[in-house]
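User: Show me a protein chain along with its predicted structure.
Assistant: Here is one chain, sequence first, then structure tokens.
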Amino acid sequence: MAEYFLQNRWMIEDGALYYYGLRNRENLFKNKVRITKKQLDIVRTLPRDLSDNEIRILGKLIGVQVVTKEEFRPTPKSLAEARFCSECAANDYMIPGLEFDGDRRCPMCGTASETENLKSLVPIIDEIPHSKKSRFDVAIFYTGGKDSTFLLYHLAKVKKLRVLALTWEIPYMSDSARASIENAKRHFSNVEFISRALAKDDLRRIYKKLYELSDNTCACPSLAYLLFYPDLVAEKVPFFIAGNEPVQALGLYYNRMAPKIAYSFPENRSLGTLINIGRLLMLRPPLKKGQFQTLMTMKQLAYGDHPLKKLFGYSNPLVSNVVTAIHEVPSLLPPLKKTIRGSSRSGNIPAFVALDFDKICGGNYDWNKTKAILTEECGWVAPDESSKALHTSCKIEKCKDHSQFVRFYYCRSKLIPFSAIEIALASRNQCRSREEILKEAELHLGFSLDEPCECSVMLKFLEDEK
């Protein structure tokens, strides 16, 4: 007889076992294990000694889901207690339940060669032509942060395109981002800047619902899409781009929000042909590259997740919660729905596309080199914290990190903290050293079990009815 435990991070849910963590390469995404009623009855009674017959009934669960005291892996309570990947900054404190292979590599490093082509969920294009039908060649969602400023610099200064820069003003915009936006207006003569803000009462209603669902109020960039899509259509802008760096797109895969096929879909001509046949039968013009992605993005905001996404388990809870919150202010939706219908009928749909930041930079999108270029060429203002690079445009980014981290740490959410995945990928791709990454994590990200002081800024806006 020996005492056995249910391994840490494995939880009983709906008569099965679910693992709150990122498993090793061999078992990647195998987080749910179905068990028999007899097995379930035994597991419910753990920890305790098990007889030989009970061990036989548990079978393959022994040593993995059901373990001895010596095999039990507690969740670290701090970064100092964490186990680290041998190749990157990933660790089992920032990603509780992180598993390693025999060489102590995390699953991101173990699957690097298999995921190197998973770059974007929207079409990647190399060149944007000058438009003959619009005053603008391209629009971007501009936050004043590092990534969107790099995108603005590349399109306006390097490619000399006519750019429409769209800024959704949030109450938490950082001082450095505001200064960067004002400096950009002086640096770029071929860019038109538009800023828009929701009425505070409407925004507060949305934020309160979002806080109830997610413990934070981050709604970027979804609300920007909602606010500006009618403008994009009215101006007949041919392309629009969100300023996301490569690791953010790949993070969706490791968070099981996008399967591999989703990354190849934009270039799948057969699927595109089938979609266009359906549109022609409905007397709709065929879609060009990136237009399908636009329609799906806007329809999700207006109507919610497609049932198939939920059926196959690839629903994005971040976006789903934002959509639920947006519906707290129903008056926002009719203009969006009207524009979706009109643009779908006419074919006047701005294409949602992406640029390959790594390719633009000739290898890797190096954060430190990028900041130096933007400071010199765009008047970009770095945050006061010189080591901060992952997120630079929002005062409450740490609150989002913290809420995602704490909810996952205590197994209240299946969402792995996005910043934890992103900084692991960034260090894996040699954008930054492990030392730089960990310094930023300790100083500027929300990976603490204690609530960061920045949460008071977020809560003050929610509580301030004036």
